[in-house]
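Repro case for the chain-ordering regression, as requested:
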Amino acid sequence: MATGEISSSMWNGGGSPYAIPSKKLGMWLFIISDALTFSALLIAYSYVRVASDSWPSPFHFWPSIVVSTVMTFCLLTSSITMVMAVAAAKQGRIGATMGWLAGTMAGGVAFLVLHANEWRTLIGEGLRPFENPWGSPLFGATFFTCTGLHMLHVTIGVGVLAVVAAGFKKGRYPADYVEIAGLYWHFVDLVWMFLFPLIYLLSIAPNVAH
Amino acid sequence: MSAHTEHGHAEGTTKLYLSVWVILLLLSAVEVYLGYLHLPLHLMLSLLMGLSLVKAGMIIAYFMHLRFEKVGLVWTLLPMWMIVTCLLFVFFPDSFRALEFRFPK
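-- result from build under test --
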């Protein structure tokens, strides 16, 4: 019976309802669960902020807002180079793929260096996880947790890209792996699009002449 | 390029991706500008989150390629995130009265 053959092959994995490789679906499922982690963190941050009085707004135009805007530029630009890397990998152009991936990693490293310097400045001004000179002590805890987890993601992303680039160059990894690593990288970029306005732009220091 | 269509579904062109990138940069600049406008907090929060959602949508649709995948994948992935995020907001209104429950200093 024709229908029986079709359904038994479906049950044996013959069907491909999403028409994507299983590793790509796995990455998508991971991204959804990771997005929920960041959603929970940002909602917790908003909750704590609404429930506290004298929430600090310590971010001056220079250096914090300028630097965090440059960091946004770095991440968005590393996303477009990642798109180029995936396109080059699918066409089998290994040299071009390496170049675009190197550009993407450079964007990630620039982000990390600028962000680490930002942390250093704030810590120098007296910011600690459970105390700060400006207002509600919870500010430090939420700031370090949200941006720290995001920095960890960027760090892991740079590592993943390095491994995938090396494997793709040797021919051990197919172009799909570059695309799947790219999905993760774009997600890290996406998370910053929420961290940047919620944490930085809503806490701009008042009465600043710029 | 012929390599773009070998998987049998439509994909974006370099020009499309570059214009998405430029729009994302412009929206980020608008957000920074909004930060200095001294708007009421609720309006500012709505505008910033609205713009961020637009940016996230563009990143997901074009950079993460979801627009060019089967629509079934979208219907599998996004509702998971939306439902759980809505559930997280269930107890958010408590934050508005948490201040009233504090002991006076």
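Ordering looks correct now. The radius of gyration of chain A is 21 Å.
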